[in-house]
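Page 47, continued from p. 46.
Same chain as before, 503 aa.
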Amino acid sequence: MRTITPDQISQHKTSQSCWVIIRNNVYDVTDFIPNHPGGRRSILRFAGKDATSDFEAIHPPGTLEESLPEGAKLGTVAIVDGKERAHDPTDEKQEVKLAPEAPEDMLNIADIEEHACRTLSKKAWAYYASASDDMRTKTYNNTIFNLVLFRPRIFRDITVVDTTARMLGFKTSLPVFVSPAALARLAHPDGEKAIARACGKQRILQMISNNASLRYPDIVSARVSSEQPFAFQLYVQNERDRSEKLLRDVVKAGCRAVVLTLDAPTPGKREMDERLAREEARSAGNVDEGEALSANSGRGKDAEGGVGRALFQGTAGDLVWDDLIWLKEQLPHDIKIILKGLQTVEDVILASQQIDKRTGKQLVDAVLLSNHGGRALEAAPPPLLILEEVRAYAPEVFESLEIYIDGGIRRGTDVVKALCLGATQVGIGRPALMSLAGGFGEAGVFRVIQILREEIETAMRLLGALTIDQLGPQYVNTRQLDAILGPSPEAAAGAGVLLKAKL
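Result:
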């Protein structure tokens, strides 16, 4: 295979002739530009340059072989003056300020996030920290926990507390799981494998993102034992056969549950992420004049935003309740179905009523109350509020569904409050990603889970509850939270009928 000099490569930097360097190999990606799921700009800003750092952070191994035709690989980069390739400016880190350098120095999740802010690349921070619009929903997901107060009991023997919990029929050492969180390799080369190892050692479940930066079998290969459970997040694609193949692959690799994600059928407006993408496009200087961003360019496919928007290309927007039958048909009978992204008590009730007419069995095993971490609809209800509405208006569904929440969890006391209100398990997303940063990797994720374990145990002791099963509404004062509950399903339906009558 021929060698190509950096100068030769740099001449091919337009949409008419676009070459890129990945792992010292040179590829002609000109014909792939119109079909790239992340949009044209994602490729063009690296035209004639080295794209290795950005490419490997967000693409699983094997992506090139699957996406490009034979002949796209042109050769390798020639060594010039002892250097194989030019400096990749997009891999520059933010200035690292003084911060604790060991995971054990982190006292809480806020410390973890501060450390991540100082050590992550600008791209990684913009993707992990961004949320929709003014990011108020992201903030409210956490601050709403302040509306719930504890009611501690005394004269209880709290010498030993047991945090063992259950999830879909198997035991976990803690009522905490890692929610689907994409692109972990933006923070650490081990990415989702580091999360898998930490979860295995702490004996909790990891939900693997549909947009993980490693392939599902590779992540599962990092399990610490054959019994370690995993769930897989699914975004159904417009091309259903692609989703069907993906499901076959993850089931073969040992998936225990599928998490059908419903709270983001289209991407929210994540301005932090989008702003960085525009800055990178301008600074790259490779974009054709006709591709330049302008106030009149609109928000079509070629005016795409950041990493978050790119990940949603091809996601189906036409899902309805009947599609649960299709999903069930793709899975062995023992694979559980979790619906992620329910945001009203009405939809939780509907989820509990979905029956497989062939078997007479319930289709949905669990629901995950979530607003996508505040990254989808601004002003969506925080999961804790949805949980309280379910408890107030439809307590019967707790008998037929396991109910999880995620979003805004920053303390063990947040977890305990959710458990008192009926949650079976509580998920963390951003903390797991950010704990990888600064070289922490697996040790960082382990530390996050350890922090939550210590805080949960402390809260249980101070409450006077010895086991997870003992936690219940008797331990919390929800008067402030109840004051902002939405209308009951009956009242909401009645209001709709009344409005139509007036119209």
